[in-house]
């Protein structure tokens, strides 16, 4: 499905810029160009937020609810929507640190917090949400969903972010970050979501899964 393929590719664009942000924030007090902080914020607000996350919320999630009858008020969709809100708040906290003259000491920990949330969110979508969505759309005979290209502002923000990734590097280590695949590695697992199998499977799917496990 083209929409899911494009969302996956966008993750591959977002991650190196996120790592570059951590590298930049560590250098704010060492003479890094504070104007670059505004460009980083533009990338995450416009490209990661208004373009990428918005298409998940406005196209993918409603289609899953409408076409495959998964719940919106609990489970993966509820958890991922919560992630979007928490990341938006963390980004604004980071903005305060990056743009305030005396905020240098807060920039690095705020960037690490935001980027850690973002990369764990990417892992949850890439390893669980997208494959499961693809399978459920296929069973529902839904082959395509609305796809749109970034507008001029979003495209400029993307290109600017990629330039920043080249300038600051895209291999920064994120202290304390634990990544992995599957529901068990998701920060929401057991807190606001019991995993895609429990949250989305109907009785017939559960019986089929138990039969396969028993075999």
Structural write-up:
- 72% of the residues lie in helices and 0% in strands.
- The chain has a single domain, classed as Four Helix Bundle (Hemerythrin (Met), subunit A).
- The relative contact order is 0.18.
- The mean pLDDT is 91.
- It has 7 helices and no strands.
- Helix 3 runs antiparallel to helix 4.
- The radius of gyration is 19 Å and the shape is globular.
SSE arrangement:
Layout: H1 2-25, H2 34-68, H3 75-99, H4 104-139, H5 152-168, H6 196-200, H7 203-214
| N-to-C SSE string, H for helix and E for strand | HHHHHHH
The unreliable regions are: none
Arithmetic mean pLDDT: 91
Q: Can you tell me the CATH class?
A: Mainly Alpha
Note the overall shape.
globular
Number of helices: 7
Assigned CATH architecture: Up-down Bundle
Number of strands: 0
Give the radius of gyration: 19 Å
- According to CATH, what is the topology? Four Helix Bundle (Hemerythrin (Met), subunit A)
Kindly name the structural category: mainly alpha
Q: Helicity range of the residues?
A: over 70%
Report the span from N to C terminus: 32 Å
The tally of structural domains comes to 1
Percent in strands: under 5%
- What about the largest sheet? none
């Amino acid at each position: 499905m083209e929409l899911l393929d494009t969302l996956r590719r966008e993750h591959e664009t977002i991650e190196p810029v996120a790592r570059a942000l951590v590298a930049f924030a560590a250098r704010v007090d060492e003479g890094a160009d504070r104007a670059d902080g505004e460009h980083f914020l533009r990338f995450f607000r416009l490209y990661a937020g208004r373009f990428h996350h918005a298409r998940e919320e406005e196209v993918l999630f409603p289609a899953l609810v409408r076409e495959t009858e998964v719940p919106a008020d609990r489970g993966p969709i509820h958890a991922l929507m919560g992630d979007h809100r928490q990341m938006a708040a963390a980004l604004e906290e980071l903005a305060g640190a990056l743009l305030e003259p005396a905020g240098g000491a807060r920039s690095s920990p705020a960037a690490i917090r935001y980027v850690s949330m973002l990369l764990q969110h990417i892992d949850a979508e890439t390893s669980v949400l997208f494959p499961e969505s693809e399978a459920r759309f296929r069973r529902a005979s839904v082959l395509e969903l609305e796809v749109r290209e970034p507008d001029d502002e979003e495209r400029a923000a993307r290109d600017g972010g990629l330039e920043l990734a080249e300038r600051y590097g895209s291999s920064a280590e994120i202290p304390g970050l634990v990544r992995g695949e599957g529901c068990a590695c998701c920060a929401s697992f057991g807190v606001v979501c019991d995993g895609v199998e429990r949250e989305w499977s109907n009785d017939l799917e559960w019986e089929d899964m138990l039969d396969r496990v028993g075999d």
